[in-house]
Write a structure and sequence with these properties.
The longest helix is centred in the middle third of the chain and has 15 residues. The chain is 39% helix and 15% strand. The protein is built from 16 helices and 13 strands. It is an alpha/beta fold and 424 residues long. It binds pyridoxal-5'-phosphate (PLP).
Length: 424
């Protein structure tokens, strides 16, 4: 039976402001219009909380194990904020592999190590999870247009899912957006507005126009539903680990705006509270040394995440100086007794090669940064040799060929003769 008609909002219990902790009953919050955090006059984003007793009771009647893995992340219908009134676009999202790699574990110096390969999503990044939820939410609300400001994976996943759902996508890109990423957006039929300004001004313009035109705003900094899509990566890790009867000591993910790791932590926490995992794994957040405001805040025990001028790293997807969800990420890492760590770009490129050569998995720089951070955490003794870890590969390496080329060098040029090959 198709799952979507079975979706309901009845498992939502309340909405909570992550900055102040103030809560609103779900029924009251849902009765407000679409821009919930703005409606409540909040600076911080809202977190959606579920009635987990009710979820557990429903999982008893309809166990997760009986639901096809091919349904993707919609399998977790009780933990998603969707009404079931509209069908999701026909692109398979989630249900990505969790691959154990004994050789990589040995090389890194860990007892066991798994890769969560989210580069296998339809537009090749974890961002397909939130974009798919945003598109369904936009359809539920009767929007015909959806927009975001981005040059990276959020934009390409939104463009792809909007195309599959028949929604008009408008993407605001800053003047210096790279050409290959713009090409991907245009292939998916998005209206691409190249703004004669930097990213911050472009983002503000997108906010203003969404407000004026009534376009659905796919932006994790203001839209509380997107985290719910991202968290399904954590839900899946928990369920897949439960099949191995192991619980990872650490789950590792890279941090830009901070929303993805916080969301993965939320998913893991919900699965721990539901008894799928015996204990909450610790979170290791990784950043590039040239763009690491969250690591700095974590190290100095700060209450807030500082802004960092002139952020720079080859890992473009995590090149963020003013993280939109930095505080939420910091809270998630602290709540999970975790740690933040930064690494040089060179270490990220080395990690990209190592993962490619030992696992056959190609991560973009932002994804390889997570493995580099894990290696650094082992070197610093933050993680011990008898521990286990899951590394989230959040985007496929084919998204950024120039960084990969810098990491691996050139092929061997030869003449078309067998004699030209001198090695065995
Ligand atoms: C591949 C990849 N990894 C990691 C991240 C970091 O996610 P966040 O910005 O939510 O911290 C992003 C964000 O764009 C990304 O595209």
């Amino acid at each position: 039976m198709p799952l979507f008609p079975l979706m309901t909002l009845e498992h939502l219990s309340h909405f909570r402001c992550v900055n102040t902790g103030q809560t609103w009953p779900a029924a009251e919050a849902l009765a407000q219009d679409r821009w919930l955090n703005e409606r409540f006059g909040l600076d911080g984003i809202l977190s959606l909380e579920y009635d987990l007793e009710r979820v557990a009771a429903d999982w008893k009647r309809s166990p997760l194990a009986s639901r096809s893995w091919a349904l993707g992340h919609w399998r977790y219908r009780e933990l998603l904020p969707l009404s079931g009134k509209v069908e999701p676009p026909p692109l398979s999202v989630g249900s990505t592999p969790l691959v154990e790699s004994p050789r990589l574990a040995e090389s890194v110096g860990l007892s066991r190590l798994w890769i969560k390969d989210d580069g296998r999503n339809p537009t090749a990044s974890l961002k397909d999870r939130p974009s798919s939820v945003a598109v369904v939410k936009a359809l539920e609300m009767g929007a015909s247009s959806i927009a975001c400001a981005s040059t990276g994976n959020a934009a390409s996943s939104l463009a792809g899912f909007a195309a599959a759902a028949g929604l008009k996508a408008t993407i605001f890109v800053p003047k210096r957006a790279p050409a290959p990423k713009i090409a991907q957006l245009l292939v998916f039929g998005a209206r691409v507005l190249r703004v004669n300004a930097d990213y911050d001004r472009t983002w503000a313009l997108c906010q203003e126009v969404c407000g004026k035109r009534g376009w659905y705003n796919r932006n994790c900094a203001v839209n509380p539903y997107l985290v719910e899509g991202k968290k399904t990566c954590g839900l899946e890790i928990a369920e897949q680990m439960s099949w191995t009867s192991e619980c990872p000591d650490w789950v590792v993910g890279s941090v830009g705006d901070g929303c993805s790791l916080a969301a993965i932590g939320k998913g893991l926490r919900e699965m721990t509270d539901l008894g799928v995992l015996p204990r909450m794994p610790r979170l290791l957040g990784t950043q590039a040394s040239g763009a690491d405001p969250v690591t700095r805040a974590w190290k100095s025990d700060a209450e807030n995440v500082p802004s960092l001028a002139g952020a720079t790293t080859i890992a473009d997807s995590i090149c963020v100086g003013r993280p939109a969800n930095g505080l939420r990420c910091l809270q998630a890492v602290r709540d999970a007794n975790g740690a933040m760590i930064s690494v040089e770009d060179e270490a990220t490129l080395d990690a990209m090669k190592l993962m490619g050569r030992l696992c056959g998995i190609f991560g973009e720089p932002a994804a390889s940064n997570a493995l580099a951070g894990l290696i650094e955490a082992r070197a610093q003794g933050v993680i011990g040799p008898n521990e286990t870890a899951v590394v989230v590969v959040s985007g496929n390496g084919l998204k950024d060929i120039s960084s990969a080329a810098a990491a691996v060098g050139q092929p061997i040029d030869i003449e078309p003769t067998a004699e030209a090959i001198s090695f065995t």
